Amino acid sequence: GRTKVFAQWGRFYESMPLAITVRALGNSTQTLYRFGYPQGRVLPTAQNPGNLLLVIDQSSDTRVVPGTDPQYTDEVSLGVERELAQGLVVGLRGVERTAGNVIETFSLDGGVNFLIGNVDRTYTVNPITGQTLAAPITYRAVRKYQALQLTARQTRGDRMQWFASYVYSRARGNYAGLHLQEPSQPV
Fold first, then answer.
1. pTM metric for this prediction
2. Residue environment code for 27-62, b if the CB has 16+ CB neighbours within 10 A, otherwise e
3. How high is the pLDDT of residue 130?
4. Of 30, 90, 139, 157, whose CB count within 10 A is highest?
C-alpha cells in the first residue's frame, strides 16, 4: 500500500495550425522579400536594406490534398511512486511523445504551387493534378520528445505541503510543432 506503479497511453488530435488557415485559405496575397547585407558589411536599415536577393509572390490558391489525415501526437508515460515516510512521497516518471500525421504546406514543383497535406510520406504523383512526378519527392516531419521526471512531495498536517519536481528532457527531429514558418522542404 506504499507503492504505486502506473502507465498511460494517449493519442491527442491537434487542430489545424491557424497560420495555414489564414495564409493559405484566407484569400490573401503575400510578398516575401529577402535581402542580403548592404555593402560594407553594415547592419541593414530602412533606408539601406541591402541587396534584394529574392521576391516571392504567394497567393492563397493553395489546395488541400484529398485524403489528408488529422494531425496528432502519441504519448506514453510510465512511472512509480513510493511513500518513504508518513506524508513523504517520491516518484519517477518517464514520458515519450511522438508526432504523427503532420499537416503542413509543401510544394512538389520547386515552390511555384503549394499544397496542404500530410508531409510524412513520399509523393510519386501530384495528388491534385494526377500527373506523375519526374522523381519521387519525400517529406519527413519528425518530432520526438523524451523526458524523465523526478518528484517529491510532503504533506504536514492540515496546513502545509510542498512539491518539488525536476525534469530532464530532450526533443529531437526536424519539426517544431503547431506553427507555420516556412513551407516544408523535401528530404
1. 0.69
2. eeeeeeeeeeeeeeeeeeeeeeeeeeeeeeebeeeb
3. 84
4. 139
